[in-house]
Design goal:
This protein is of the alpha+beta class and 506 residues long. Helices cover 20% and strands 33% of the residues. It contains 8 helices and 23 strands. Strands 8, 9, 10, 11, 12, 13, 14, 15, 16 and 17 form a 10-stranded antiparallel beta sheet that branches. Strands 3, 4, 5, 18, 19, 20, 21, 22 and 23 form a 9-stranded mixed beta sheet that branches. A two-stranded antiparallel sheet has the order 1-2. Helix 3 packs antiparallel against helix 5. The N terminus is likely disordered.
């Protein structure tokens, strides 16, 4: 994507009449507004740079007064094979205005781990299996091997009983001949003679280190690479897997701190995934109150000292098996949970949460990865099952001046034009139709990555048009629905009306 930048600086005298005070005198205030324009050579996704539109220090009457947005926006639009239905609440944050902030990626620090450990893990020690002592059984206990053998034997017997065609399908699915699978099973049985009844355990020092690619070695046994902290914690009789990734290079900044509970219902440390396909009956039978989950998550986040974060959204999560083995995706669900998202807040104005990581790359682009900052807590009926904290920022306020925002009418016009341009290019040459349902339009901050940087960016105000998308292929009556509650189909720069790609991060 090539973008032509043209800077036009216009000095405009804006006279704002102030309210008449009790003295009966009417005063005026002159403001200097600097406007930077930015246009794209293809009229599509424009890069966001340093936007210098300011109000000269005045709030211009607050955000709501600046943008003059309606409470609700409706539209029914069509062009070619794309139809867009808008029935959306328009959400404008309270506050005086947006300011300019710069953010830098930072690695996790020891204090980060200690805070999370104290609040969620009750300061319990990290442990791991002693793989040297248990080398003869590949780290497995006798019971674990027996359970694995039994499950695989039952699976193989079921496939054989279904006939040769079922065997062929199974082999294609796993990518191995049945004879090879049975040889592997025999090898697993051979491990039983060396398998202990109980696992051998060693303590893992909870030392947070950073790896900048210089090949340093550091950790509890002197063999694990610096930048990684992995182990298990037992809290109130329940086991949790803990992983902290502090790998930092010039073009890679994907740092995650995650806690995953071992789910007895499925027998392993299970990551829950956002899931919008639950039935009402499944939601009602999940065994928890969404209000109570939200309150608990907010309490934990506050206890960890995340005073500059606030609630940003919620959705159902689930563990589910391969859908192909079930009559419906709902039948594939093994367990249900509820996730609460949090985002950073600047002067009372939050960063808008979407499901995008911002790590997509354009053709020919250098391999640069820096996902958005994220914080999510997921609970099921028993309590916390997943904690995910990713890509923390170091924040710097650039200016106390308020940025000048375009009126919503201009943003609306841009959306109604660009939603078709963006996705018509995407479906050209295909036999598909797209139906968008936009149910929320939200103004908030977004981080845009500096060109060529995997660790520096600017927070700017954007409008997100959030909703669902249905795709219908030629010859098919039913549409394939993408029903994420947090997908922004168009993101418009609130300063200059250019289109920003959340997938690319700029």
């Amino acid at each position: 994507m090539k973008v032509k930048r043209c800077l036009a600086v216009c000095v405009a005298a804006v006279f704002m009449a102030l309210a008449v005070g009790c003295t009966g005198k009417e005063e005026t205030e002159e403001e200097i507004i600097t406007i930077k324009e930015e246009e794209s050579d293809d009229g599509a996704d424009g890069l966001a740079g340093d936007h210098t539109q300011t109000s000269g220090g005045s709030a211009l009457g607050g955000i709501a007064q600046q943008v003059q947005a309606p409470e609700h926006y409706t539209a029914d639009l069509s062009a070619g094979d794309i139809h867009v239905k808008v029935d959306a609440q328009v959400i404008v944050p309270e506050g005086e205005g947006f300011k300019t902030y710069r953010v830098k990626a930072r690695p996790f620090e020891q204090a980060d781990y200690d805070t999370v450990s104290h609040t969620i893990l009750k300061d319990q020690k990290l442990w791991d299996r002693d793989m040297e002592t248990m080398a003869g059984s590949h780290g497995l206990t006798k019971e674990e091997i027996e359970q694995n053998v039994t499950a695989r034997e039952e699976e193989i017997a079921k496939v054989k009983a279904a006939g040769e065609e079922a065997v062929s399908i199974y082999e294609a699915k796993v990518g191995k001949d049945l004879e090879v699978i049975e040889e592997e099973l025999a090898g697993l049985k051979d491990l039983l003679h060396a398998a202990p009844e109980e696992p051998a355990i060693i303590e893992v020092p909870a030392h947070v280190t950073v790896n900048t690619g210089n090949g340093e070695k550091e950790n509890h046994d002197g063999k694990k690479e610096a930048g990684w902290l992995n182990g298990y914690v037992t809290v109130d009789g329940k086991d949790y897997a803990v992983s902290l990734d502090n790998m930092v290079t010039q073009d890679w900044r994907w740092n995650n701190f995650e806690i995953i509970k071992k789910e007895e219902k499925v027998g392993y440390f299970a990551t829950y995934y956002s899931f919008s396909g639950l039935t009402d009956a499944q939601k009602q039978g999940a065994g928890f109150s969404t209000d109570e989950v939200r309150a608990k998550a907010e309490e934990v986040v506050a206890a960890m000292g995340f005073t500059d974060f606030s609630f940003a959204g919620e959705e159902y999560y689930a563990i589910y098996a391969n859908e192909e083995e079930y009559d419906s995706i709902q039948d594939a669900v093994k367990d249900i949970a509820y996730g609460i998202h949090f985002t950073r807040v600047f002067d009372g104005v939050p960063v808008t949460y979407t499901g995008e990581t911002g790590t997509t790359m354009e053709d020919g682009e250098d391999h640069i990865v820096w996902p958005y900052e994220n914080l999510t807590l997921v609970y099921n009926r028993e309590g916390l099952v997943n904690f995910i904290w990713g890509n923390p920022y170091e924040v710097e306020k650039v200016s106390d001046e308020y940025l000048f925002l375009l009126p919503f009418s201009e943003i609306q016009n841009t959306f109604e034009e660009m939603i078709f341009k963006k996705y018509q290019d995407w479906i050209d040459g295909t036999q598909m139709k797209i139906d968008f349902q936009i149910n929320e339009v939200r103004l908030g901050y977004m981080r845009v990555r500096e060109d060529g940087s995997a660790g520096e960016g600017t927070m700017i105000p954007v409008w997100d048009f959030i909703g669902t998308r249905g795709i219908t292929y030629e010859g098919e009556e039913a549409a394939y629905d993408e029903a994420s509650a947090f997908h922004s189909w168009i993101t418009v720069n609130a300063l200059d009306g250019t289109i920003i790609s959340r997938e690319l991060g700029y």
